[in-house]
Amino acid sequence: MPDNGAPIGVFDSGVGGLTVAKEIMAQIPNERIVYFGDTARVPYGSKSKATITKFTKQIVRFLMTQDVKALVIACNTMSAYAIDEVEKEVSLPVIGVVKPGARVAVSQTKNKRIGVIATEGTIGSGMYERFITNIDPTVNVLGKACPLFCPLVEEGMLDDPVTDEVARRYLKELMDQDIDTLIMGCTHYPLLAPALKRLVGDKVRLVNPAYETARELKEMLTENGMLNDKPFNEQGKDHEFYVSDLADKFTRFAAEILDNNGINTRKVDIETY
């Protein structure tokens, strides 16, 4: 098992996982992150389970070369399709983003009508519905694929009339079915939270799996005696960021999301892993 000072491996299909990284930095500030975004092969939501599993294993093999002490699958689609395969490949703790968000949604709903917005892959997997109904079989889970959200986020169109109109069209179906809780089932989507909140209003609680995943990670590290107790500014190392393509574009986006202009992103040939 790696030592407590080893980093946390966080990975996603692109920039969406930065919402998880940001929450980890806020909730567990002593922990160092090694982040990988598969920017060459994004989006994942419309790809097959076999392809997603293959890509996920390649990323995990790369992160294992960075001597990480735990893995966070900061992508709902990869969590839905590949987490079981990842757990078979490594002996490290592995946390996905689906279960933490689902658990909180079940605890929050009053009318037992939970909406899930996500990629086509995540909705098609049925992962949220299965996990939620395993907790409470009386809950009605209403899923809606929102394939345009990821490209809009990747293009930085977070506060744009086009994004607002797309969101309005996607959410109308769920709002018409009287949901009182909405899971943002893709790590890109919390970046659209202000627009989503304007549309759903105060009657619908937004569940951010990124926040819940960081909280669960902290609990897991604490329970296993794996927390890094050395202050971050005394460790002599910074967070590390890797991508499969477009490093400069990723750096600009990450600097904005993480409010950090000192980010250095390196490109990795992920196909070699």
Break the fold down into its secondary structure elements and pairings.
Layout: E1 8-12, H1 18-27, E2 33-37, H2 49-64, E3 70-73, H3 76-89, E4 94-96, H4 98-108, E5 113-118, H5 120-125, H6 127-135, E6 140-145, H7 149-154, H8 161-176, E7 181-184, H9 193-200, E8 205-207, H10 209-223, E9 240-243, H11 247-258, E10 265-267
Helix pairs in contact: 1-10, 2-3, 4-6, 4-10, 8-9
Short summary:
By secondary structure, the chain is α/β, with parallel strands linked by helices.
Report on the structure:
The chain is α/β, with parallel strands linked by helices. The longest helix is centred in the N-terminal third of the chain and has 16 residues, at 49-64. It is built from 11 helices and 10 strands.
